[in-house]
Amino acid sequence: MVKNKLIYKKLDSSVENTKNNYASVAVLFFDEVEILFIKRSENMPTHKGHIAFPGGKKEKNDKSIIHTAVREATEELLISDNLITPFGYIDSVDTVEYKFEVYPILCLLENKPKKFNKNEVQKVLYASIDDLKLEKNWVYRGLYPNDWIFHIDNEILWGATAKMIINILNLDLDFNQDSELHP
Length: 183
Fold this sequence. Notes:
Blueprint: E1 9-10, E2 22-30, E3 34-40, E4 51-52, E5 55-57, H1 65-77, E6 84-89, E7 101-109, E8 121-128, H2 129-133, E9 138-140, E10 148-152, E11 155-157, H3 159-168, E12 172-173, E13 181-182
Parallel strand pairs: 2-7
Antiparallel strand pairs: 1-6, 2-3, 2-5, 3-4, 3-8, 6-7, 9-10, 10-11, 12-13
């Protein structure tokens, strides 16, 4: 299990009975210290070029939100599903562009992918959990409520993905302070 204190719900049978219209993402923890992100391809129908977690919409044969997240991660990262071990989830979030609920599934990743699906992914990035937890690494941009951003390798993590990270790491935002997160 991941050593850092994370806020999540343990997987149980309740996550198997999900709605028909949803998306799931795989929040992949590598070596208990890093989280994997992707930069989405400019060819994607939504969230072009955004920093995100591997994931996507439910397909007809998907059995659960877990199955969707793992399937999408294997398709985008060109890895076997036996390298991914789901262990929990957080509440779904809504996105502006995508009208379905998005379910973040927390997973351990056994090996870093050596390649990826270039039709869906521009590049793979990693951020350390310790860096994600540091107040000084987050900036409140303020274009909308909860508009916190984090820089990863000259890319900007923002929006629903940033909100998921904040929820997972239990960071408490204080809008009365200047551009800081308060744990």
